[in-house]
């Protein structure tokens, strides 16, 4: 029971076209796994313009919006769902700040990025955004059920 409560939170994480092209998928999955988070869904997907528009709806009208859509649809994206205790904020900590140059070393963006418009990876910014984004990118049957594996070495 306690274990169910600890691991129930989920977040949507996506390695953007720059991260995929730079062969960072394995490195990034490794960092999330080593932290103790659990991968419950993943796929390589070329996002449609429509999916990108829905994903970045909050930025509609901003000066960088069209360029952002061009970028995110420019190549394959590695979409993932991760599960774990406070996984939304934990994932954001592993990812770092929006601007890779301001992001500390030992974060993904701090270690691998230079430019805010090529910041390698996305992570949901709240539990609510996480639910919305997981529903947007994944069908229900593409995510494994909670509690299928027991994480007794972590919780
Ligand atoms: P995402 O994980 O992509 O949502 O990034 P994050 O939440 O850290 O930052 P936000 B503010 O959501 O940025 C979304 C994308 O827009 C890009 N961007 C943002 C710019 O290019 N210029 C800007 O001035 C701002 C604020 C960065 C993010 N993605 N990329 N690529
Ligand atoms: Mg964001």
TrEMBL record:
Domain of life: Eukaryota
Binding residue positions for ATP: 16, 64, 92, 98, 109, 119
The Nucleoside diphosphate kinase-like domain, residue ranges: 8-145
GO MF, any single term: nucleoside diphosphate kinase activity
Enzyme Commission code(s) on record: 2.7.4.6
Cofactor(s) needed for function: Mg(2+)
Active site positions: 122
Keyword set includes Transferase: yes
Keywords: ATP-binding, Kinase, Membrane, Nucleotide-binding, Transferase, Transmembrane, Transmembrane helix
Catalytic EC class: transferase
Catalytic activity, reaction form: a 2'-deoxyribonucleoside 5'-diphosphate + ATP = a 2'-deoxyribonucleoside 5'-triphosphate + ADP
Biological process terms in GO annotation: CTP biosynthetic process; GTP biosynthetic process; UTP biosynthetic process
Family affiliation: Belongs to the NDK family.
Protein's UniProt name: Nucleoside diphosphate kinase
Naturally occurring in which organism (per UniProt): Anaeramoeba flamelloides
Residues of the full protein shown: 37 to 191 of 193
